[in-house]
């Protein structure tokens, strides 16, 4: 019975990973599609490939943070297998519901913060505030602000440098060169997306296994977890929806290939660097910041600030909304378990 429950929760975790890729596909392909360098179908295949390639060099620092840096793993494990499974199931479902809602609304919210919020909301009814790792949560909250700011700064820097290097070239030559280079920048960003986002679910799966059937083993991220999570997010990216692509690639600002290159490179470099530090940042926040930074180099009016403001509100509400949904799911799941007993 326990093994069946564990397998089901791991399956739900991989489903979240798939939905993460589906939801965040726009982050990886919006710029390369909006500049018409690749068709949507080719773009998602390109992005999905590099999502998976990240399994062979992305590391596991973010996975360890998600597994032990948001909730107190030892306190949670002390609640027994049922407690661990209820908390993780509720966290995943809270994050999944919020991701699907924001996908339907066409808002590029953060899957990373949805999952973090879900973990907080599911843990509070069981362990209270003592079950939370304050330093880890504070780090995530700080980078809700810092990651888009870094994206803006690197987007502006890359755009300024690229424009300066090519300022003596004809517009046709600039466009031709950066259409080619945007394939590289898109690959960098897709790699960074896999390196950051797939790791979150590895940490969750590790909590489930080492908190239940493997509770006598030392917590670690197994190789099969890495490969399965990267495969799930790559598949999700491949089947990703068009709604958020439209918001990111068309509604926020208009991009030429040189701008797409600058945004993807700036955003990708930021995410890879922070992933190596074990910080589960939002790829959504970072690439949005980079796109805004690139757009702002053409003047204040080049960015549609009304759309940017709508995106900002989605960022603000993601953590508390996912936490609330996870708490509600936990309450319902707890009642269901008691009724069965």
UniProtKB/TrEMBL annotation:
The keyword Transmembrane applies. Keywords: Membrane, Transmembrane, Transmembrane helix, Transport. The chain crosses the membrane at residues 44-63, 84-106, 112-133, 140-165, 198-214, 226-245, 312-333. Signal peptide: none annotated. Its main location: membrane. InterPro entries: Phos_transporter (IPR001204). It is a multi-pass membrane protein. It is found in: Membrane. This is Inorganic phosphate transporter.
């Amino acid at each position: 019975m326990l093994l069946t429950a564990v397998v089901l929760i791991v399956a739900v975790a991989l489903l979240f990973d798939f939905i993460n890729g589906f939801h965040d596909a726009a982050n990886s392909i919006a710029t390369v599609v909006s500049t018409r360098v690749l068709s949507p179908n080719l773009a998602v295949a390109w992005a999905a490939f590099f999502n998976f390639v990240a399994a062979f060099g992305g590391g596991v620092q973010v996975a360890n943070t998600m597994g032990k840096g948001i909730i107190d793993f030892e306190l949670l494990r002390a609640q027994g297998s049922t407690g661990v499974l209820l908390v993780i199931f509720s966290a995943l479902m809270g994050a999944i519901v919020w991701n699907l809602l924001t996908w339907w609304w066409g808002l590029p919210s953060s899957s990373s913060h949805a999952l973090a919020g879900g973990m907080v909301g599911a843990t509070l009814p069981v362990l209270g505030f003592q079950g939370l790792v304050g330093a880890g949560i504070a780090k995530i909250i700080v980078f809700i602000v810092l990651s888009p700011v870094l994206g803006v700064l690197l987007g502006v820097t890359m755009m300024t440098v690229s424009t300066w290097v090519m300022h003596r070239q004809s517009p046709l030559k600039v466009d031709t060169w950066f259409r080619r280079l945007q394939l590289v920048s898109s690959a960098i960003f897709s790699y960074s997306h896999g390196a950051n986002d797939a790791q979150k679910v590895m940490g969750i799966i590790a909590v489930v296994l080492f908190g239940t059937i493997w509770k006598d083993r030392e917590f670690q991220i197994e190789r099969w977890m890495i490969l399965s999570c990267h495969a799930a997010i790559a598949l999700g990216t491949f089947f990703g929806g068009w709604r958020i692509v439209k918001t990111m690639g068309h509604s926020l600002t208009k991009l030429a290939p040189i701008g797409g290159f600058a945004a993807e490179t700036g955003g990708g470099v930021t995410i890879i660097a922070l992933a190596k530090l074990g910080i589960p940042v939002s790829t959504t926040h970072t690439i949005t910041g980079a796109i805004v930074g690139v757009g702002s180099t053409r003047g204040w009016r080049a960015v549609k600030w009304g759309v940017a403001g709508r995106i900002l509100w989605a960022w603000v509400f993601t953590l508390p909304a996912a936490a609330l949904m996870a708490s509600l799911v936990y309450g319902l799941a707890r009642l269901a378990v008691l009724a069965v007993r």
